[in-house]
Amino acid sequence: MNKLRLIINEKGRYITIPGVAPFRTPAELDVSRVKLSILVQSLHSCGVTNYEIISSGRSGVEKYTQDDFKQVEKDDKLNERLDKLETLLSILVSDKSVEKGNSSEQINKRLSRIERMLVKGGVRESSRKEPLIEELDDDDRYIPSIDVSDMKISGKTTEVLDKKDDKEIDDAVDLLSNLRK
Amino acid sequence: MAEDVAKDVETKKSEPIICLGLDCGTMHLVCSRSDSDEVRVTRNVFLPVDKDDISLTKLSNISYVESEDGDLFIIGSDAFEFANLFGQKVSRPMEKGLIAAGEDDAIDVLTLMVKDLIGDTKNKEVYCSYSIPSEAIDEERSVTFHENVFARILGSLGVNYTSVNEAMAVIYSECAKENFSGIGISFGAGMANVAIAYKGIEAHAFSTARAGDWIDMQASRDTKIIPNRITNLKEKYMKLTGEVKIKNKKTRRDLEALYYHHKSLIEYTVKKIIKEFNDKVDIEVDEEIPIIVSGGTSLPEGFVNLFKNVMSNYELPFEVSEIRRAKNPLTAVANGLLVRTMADIKGR
How large is the ipTM? Predict the structure, then answer.
């Protein structure tokens, strides 16, 4: 799986992305666990236009900017519109609460109902095929995992500071454990 | 006899359980292990460098962290030396005793440093007490994030962990003969931590955000020298006994500034101890108790005497048996944490 790092250099923005703890920019963070379309949408809704997404993996390192995702955004908008239309039609087709007929009262009822639906957007949550917000385990919701598998440490980083007196430590342990019983 | 010792060492090596004491200090990370008599340290600083600015041959003798993304961080003492050399400021995973805000790479670098410091734990059940400061009485910063991040770092390394107050660790390592009664003070880089303990029970603990870094910052302002260099100067030449053998006039002035701020720090801490004891300690301490001075900031020669002199100017709300320095001010917390871990395991 490719690793994704998001870099936003623009200062002073407060960003919320589902699955990542809210943060302020400038920032650089691992977003490998976030679905790309959600990431792009979230950045768009937060008004961030200047960002970079670095993908690294076996195939190498690739850099993407907002321009690379414009098609994704367009597709998402189109999908959203199609969703709404589909829902609207299914409601109209299945709705039996309003009797069909030719009387002006019935036609007015149907028209006002359609108008209300159009004004509100008329989208029912149940009609969505997948949730907009990715469901995560409670532990993972706000806490990014620590992953240092792509990092390595070289050289002699530690040194011996002192040699401890094991007997003294053991005596203190005996005393303390007795005291805490 | 020699056979017994060898057997003992062999037994210790094959123990499936390892206890650790991990002192998570602003300036140093120190680790004490039950299966080794060595107490190891790493300097808790790093320096991000541009890979293009440094050749790999230059890195052959220094400690560094490298990521697949091409990020390069010189770590530990080497970071400090490189920064001093180039007049740069080191990045610190921690500041004022807590995980630093705004250091994006801090937690990753810290994780690798901790992993390297605690050493091999393969196929062992590892238990660790790690130090956390008390909430500061003079600064609005919670220790919750710090406590949880270290828990997460240790958890990611497969270690069972418990957080323990830093100043209580001083009591555990230094006050066994007083039945763990006393006042433990850890003058670190970021904070001064104080615990008032009676028979192993924490009566009250607090911290102040004034410690070694505060001294460096004040002296840096007075002398217009960057804090790194002040720290370097302090560690190399600082004596609080009054005698200065440095001929260079500028350096003498710098050390003079450092002296005044050491004294000011001690006065501030003593006043806070008295106030906190009067306001917050409910238990009746009817016997003389020792004061243990520990931490890297207490290292300069003459620090404890200066502490005694300052203390003698105040009327204390408790009787003091003695004021003494920890046997090793840099390892007292790690060893105390190890004592606590081993006592917990023994008491299971």
Answer: 0.83
